[in-house]
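[retry 2/3] Bifunctional nuclease family protein: previous attempt timed out, resubmitting with same input.
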Amino acid sequence: MSVNTDTSPPVLMTVRGLVMDPASNSPVVILENSESTAFLPIWIGVCEANSIALEIEGVETPRPMTHDLVQDLLATAGCSVDHIFIHTLDENVFIASIQLRDSSAATHQVDSRPSDAIALALRAKAEILVDPSVLERAVIGESSTEETLRSILEKMRPEDMGEYEM
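[retry 2/3] Bifunctional nuclease family protein: success.
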C-alpha cells in the first residue's frame, strides 16, 4: 500500500479532461497540477465519466443525477464538501476520501472511490488533493498539450498506471 509517510503537503490538482483508453475502451479522467507538468490518469466507470463530463460542460439535466442528489443531500443536512484527497494507490487501485464540513465547522472524512469524489468536488467547487506518494507512482510525464497527452495514453495499458478497478 502506498501511503504518504513523510510530511510533504498534498498536491493540488484540477480536472484536465476525460479521454477514452482505446486499449480497454474505458474512460480515463486526467488530473493535472497547477503548472501543467504532471498528469494523473485514473481509469473510471462510464457512469462516473458521464457525471464528470456533464459537470465539466455545464450541462443541466431535467432531474438530478446521482452526484447532484448527493450534493443536495449534503446541503440539506448542513454539510459541504471541503476537499477530496486521493491518498493511496494499493494494488493498482486508487483510494480517496471526501472531507466534509458541517454547520458547526466540524469535519468528517468519508471513504470514496476517486471517480465519485471527483464528481462531487467539481459540483462543490472543492479542491482535489493528491498525496505526493501517489503521484510518484502513477503520474505521467511533463506535457501540456492534449495531442501529446492523448498519444501517451494510447500507448499505455491500464495496469501500467494504476487501473481503477470496478
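[retry 2/3] Bifunctional nuclease family protein: The first helix runs from residue 46 to 57.
[retry 2/3] clearing retry counter.
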